[in-house]
Description:
By secondary structure, this protein is α+β, with helices and mostly antiparallel strands. 49% of the residues lie in helices and 11% in strands. It has 13 helices and 7 strands.
Amino acid sequence: MANNTKALTNTEVKQAKAKDKEYNLADGGGLALRVRKTGGKAWIFNYTKPFTKKRTNIGFGNYPAVSLADARKKRAEAKELLAKDIDPKTHKEEISQQKKDELANTFGKVALKWYELKKQKVKEDTAAKAWNIMSKHALPHLENVPIHLIKPKMVIDILHPLVNKGILETVKRLCCNINEVMRLAVASGLIEVNYLADITKLFPAPKKKHMATIKPERLPELMKALITSTITKNTKCLVEWQLHTMTRPIEAATTRWDEIDLDEKVWVIPAEKMKMKKPHTIPLTPQMLNLLDLVKSMNGDTDYVFPSHHDRRGHANSQSANMAIKRIGFAGELVSHGLRALASTTLNE
């Protein structure tokens, strides 16, 4: 049956007055102006829901913020949805929820989740360094940007000044960290695609810097200088221990007696100390066992194999070996981290 409802005019809408009861002024096609007892006016659209065929209303907003022309436009859009068996009210709620999700899932919030997960996978100080770089260079620009709006151009503009300064290692790490955040967003279903996947290719790679070390043939020279020096015996043993075990300075300095299994002749470094968060087992050679006997005879009953000089309850400084190497004449030629490379090269040759 044809709709014979007379269309409203702007004057009728403007001059509609409040009454004792709330009432509607129909515009036709399901659209009406609801006039409240308070005098407020709001647009409503009455329609039949797809499939269930139940009658219901959806609000189009208040007048005069939403004009008569605007309300008719919304009615036309709603009818287009209904023609496709889409409920306009449900559609509106979904759009509203999507916008809320977009505001809630900013780059900064996803980055915070990434940081919490990273702390579980790597050492806390490693995760902290990654977060510091992110906080200093990326978050000031991207923190409040919805994750789905992050595009290559935005990140390129952030990284170019760092490239111009020549801090390419920072650029590399930042690219890696930002990509990890974006991959987490993909895995979480917040975005479909990570458009930053290849962004690293736009920037020059940093030149690799090897830890200063010496050639294997100079090992006797190093050991002679170490033995004849006036450095404390504890530090001498620490340098030797690091050389024998091929561990990092912090791992060697924080060796605990409860990590040493003399029966099995192994040193088991717990996961929390390791860079990759996995326990690491090192077999103890006769020389290493002799070294442990010597240290035990010097230091007595302590928690750490190499106790601190200032507080026997603590461990030796991780820089003690470095300072010792400088004092015995190898400054600029060898660092404590380079002892690993020296040991590795010697064994390979």
